[in-house]
Amino acid sequence: MIYIKKYNEEQKNIWNNFINSSKNGIFMFNRDFMDYHSDRFIDNSLMFYDDNDNLIAVLPANIKDNVLYSHQGLTYGSFIVNKDMKQQKMLNCFECLKQYMQDNNIHKLIYKTIPHIYHLLPSEEDLYGLFRNNAKLLKIEPSTTILLSNPCKMPKGRKAQISRAKREGVIIEESTDFINFIALENQILKKHHNTKAVHTGEELILLNSRFPENIKLYVAKYNNEVIAGTVLFIYKNVVHTQYLAANEKAREIGALDLVINELINLYKDSKEYFDFGISTEQNGKYLNEGLIAQKESFGGRTTCNTTWEII
Which tens digit of pLDDT belongs to each residue from 89-123? Predict the structure, then answer.
């Protein structure tokens, strides 16, 4: 028999220790990351125990308008499970979750998966659980990912831009100036997409202070001015570009191309994947062909982020 406890702050250490020892947990599910924006979401994270009172799974989640989300404030969601999780046990977790939803007048579950590249061990028991519970696929979002041990060939045009940036004297360095980087990012997002970054510079400073080995900023300088850069979220298997920014001068002389190339070389021997993230809008219905072509030109191909609904 499986039962659920709703997470509260007293269980923070138990939660974090479980994330750290799980087979598919990522630092984003650590409560020190999840709770930085707790004022924006009503947390409804759940902890699943077996009949021996062993914690076997957790579900990072929030609730809004009687809908349970896994989790609206995070890129990824899903059940985080330990190495003892097997398929039938996962089906039992889904049954327990459905009963919890019924008991608490929760109308539906919106469930995001963690792409398999982030798993330390095979952890797709939840996908079969979704199928068995008649989950509806809401969206698929293609993310461009490089297998660092075997990247696809980089075209001549991309190599030429990298060479130009070197000739122009572009300098790549690690930085902690998240404030000015996000200002640059927001200028570009406002101009091209009429939007802004999810994180503020102050939030990234806070998160970097809590996770200095997981969140890093690299910038390209030209004549001592930052013209391009990227914020990396660094996982056990994966380096993920959370933000990419390049002003007009950077685009002209290939500064961002050089940043990415340098980072691919930096991490190629210690990580399995370099993940650029999605290139879609409108819940996956619109593909930004120019953006994804740029990412693919570094040797990446598609992995998918999926979102499901259970009523």
Answer: 999 999 999 999 999 999 999 999 999 999 999 99
Exposed (0-12), middle (13-18) or buried (19+): which is 265, by Cβ within 10 Å? exposed
CB of 118 closer than 8 Å to CB of 75: no
The verdict on pTM exceeding 0.90 is yes
Quick check: 219 and 183 in contact, CB under 8 A?
no
Please name every residue paired with 218 in a beta bridge, in sequence order, or none if there are none.
Answer: 174, 230
Cα–Cα distance for residue pair 264/56, rounded to 1 Å = 36
Q: Are 226 and 141 in contact (CB under 8 A)?
A: no
- Do 144 and 296 touch, CB atoms closer than 8 A? yes
Query: Which residues, other chains included, contact 65 with Cβ-Cβ below 8 Å and sequence gap of 6+?
Result: none
Return the structure tokens found at 47: 């902890």
Whole-angstrom Cα distance, residue 199 to residue 214?
16
Q: How far is CA 164 from CA 55, 88, 174, 249, in A?
A: 54, 56, 21, 12
pLDDT in tens, 174-209: 999 999 999 999 998 888 778 889 899 999 999 999
Q: What are phi and psi of 194, to 5 degrees?
A: 55, 45
Please choose, from the candidates 79, 78, 141, 67, the residue with its C-alpha nearest in 3D space to the C-alpha of residue 104. Answer: 67
